[in-house]
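User: Reviewer 2 asked us to show a designed sequence for the structure in our supplementary figure. I'm pasting the structure tokens here. Could you produce the per-position amino acids so we can include them in the response letter?
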């Protein structure tokens, strides 16, 4: 049982991933920064009612790109569901340059800091990159082989927004 006033705590990456093994949706609060490595985009937020970042960070250190798909999606979530609220959260995208051994594999690449599709509420959230390769400001770069062969769509918070984004920023 949880409410927005009495949320379940998230203190580690294991706690974060456990959200997606629950039988029903709950309210959560992040009590410390967490790091995600070898990260793959999460499908949706159906199991999250509300998520208060408590001004802590979810740091994405590296990506799992070893997929046999023609579309690459880089974001924390594919879809933020209409009944989900995120607030006071910082996404720190530290994955740097996106390179792939087979640049011909991807016909489409979608990149967003928070979600590819937002149907819910994002408020007082920020997307940053504290890792800045010397040749790049902002912390993200596609290899030229990939970016020349694929249709690339990129946004700071969400590529498609049919929900609400307020008091949030990139950078």
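Assistant: Here is a per-position design you can include in the supplement:
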């Amino acid at each position: 049982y949880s409410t927005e006033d009495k949320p379940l705590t998230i203190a580690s990456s294991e706690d974060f991933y456990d959200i997606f093994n629950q039988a029903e949706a709950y309210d959560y609060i992040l009590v410390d920064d967490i790091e995600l490595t070898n990260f793959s985009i999460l499908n949706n937020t159906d199991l999250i009612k509300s998520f208060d970042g408590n001004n802590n960070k979810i740091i994405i250190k590296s990506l799992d790109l070893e997929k046999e798909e023609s579309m690459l999606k880089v974001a924390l979530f594919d879809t933020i569901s209409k009944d989900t609220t995120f607030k006071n959260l910082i996404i720190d995208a530290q994955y740097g340059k996106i390179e792939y051994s087979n640049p011909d594999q991807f016909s489409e690449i979608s990149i967003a800091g928070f979600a590819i599709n937002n149907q819910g509420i994002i408020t007082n959230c920020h997307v940053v990159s504290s890792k800045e390769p010397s040749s790049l400001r902002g912390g993200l770069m596609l290899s030229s082989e990939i970016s020349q062969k694929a249709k690339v769509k990129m946004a700071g918070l969400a590529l498609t927004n049919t929900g609400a984004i307020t008091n949030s920023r990139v950078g």
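For the response letter, you might also mention the following. Confidence is low (pLDDT under 50) at residues 134-138. The CA atoms of residues 27 and 119 lie 17 Å apart.
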